């Protein structure tokens, strides 16, 4: 038996969030053409702050003609940067601690585009 009842729509919370788009502003920084990611709306965005620091330190590069970038692209660049870092100290304890820090950072990555929950205790 077929009914004409409307099918329920998934709730907005259950739908995957579309990536945010950000404008890229190119500036001259210490004699080099360097990208700066601009906010599309007000609010906390640790991802943009972290990425702009990495761009200003030239630890991450964007293609020269890039004018727009998504939050997913920025998270991929950040993930690649994290995975490219290696500690200089070869001691096993240092290596294990470093690996745990990278794993913790990768876990938080998806939360960086909207802000972080911070529980400050005094």
Walkthrough of the structure:
Helix 1 packs across helix 2. The protein has one domain. Strand 1 and strand 2 form a beta hairpin. The relative contact order is 0.14. It is globular and about 45 Å long. A three-stranded antiparallel sheet has the order 2-1-3. It is built from three helices and three strands, in the order ββαβαα. The longest helix has 17 residues. It is an alpha+beta fold and about 120 residues long.
What is the compact description of this entry?
GO terms for molecular function: cysteine-type carboxypeptidase activity; cysteine-type deubiquitinase activity; histone deubiquitinase activity; K48-linked deubiquitinase activity; K48-linked polyubiquitin modification-dependent protein binding. The protein has 122 residues and is α+β, with helices and mostly antiparallel strands.
- Shape assignment: globular
Number of helices: 3
Parts with pLDDT < 50 across at least 5 consecutive residues = none
Structural class, from secondary structure content?
alpha+beta
Record field, number of beta strands: 3
Instruction: Enumerate the strands of the largest sheet in spatial order, edge to edge or round the barrel.
Output: 2-1-3
Distance between the termini: 63 Å
Largest sheet data: 3 strands, antiparallel
The H-and-E topology, N to C, reads as EEHEHH
Give the domain tally: 1
User: Could you tell me the mean pLDDT?
Assistant: 82
Q: If you compute it from the alpha carbons, what radius of gyration comes out, rounded to the nearest whole angstrom?
A: 20 Å
How much β-strand is present in the residues? Answer: 5-15%
Helical content (DSSP H or I, runs of 4+): 25-40%
Enzyme class: hydrolase
Family: Belongs to the MINDY deubiquitinase family. FAM63 subfamily.
InterPro entries: MINDY, MINDY_domain
Catalytic activity: Thiol-dependent hydrolysis of ester, thioester, amide, peptide and isopeptide bonds formed by the C-terminal Gly of ubiquitin (a 76-residue protein attached to proteins as an intracellular targeting signal)
């Amino acid at each position: 038996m077929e009914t004409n009842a409307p099918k329920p729509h998934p709730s907005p919370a259950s739908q995957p969030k579309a990536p945010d788009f950000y404008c890229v502003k190119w500036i001259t920084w210490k004699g080099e053409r360097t990208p700066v990611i601009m906010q599309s709306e007000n609010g906390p965005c640790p991802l943009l702050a972290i990425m702009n620091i990495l761009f200003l330190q030239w630890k991450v590069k964007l293609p020269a003609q890039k004018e727009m970038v998504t939050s997913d692209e920025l998270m991929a660049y950040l993930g690649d940067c994290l995975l490219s870092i290696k500690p200089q100290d070869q001691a096993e304890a240092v290596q294990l601690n470093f690996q745990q820090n990278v794993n913790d950072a990768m876990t938080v990555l998806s939360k960086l585009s909207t802000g972080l929950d911070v529980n400050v205790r005094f």
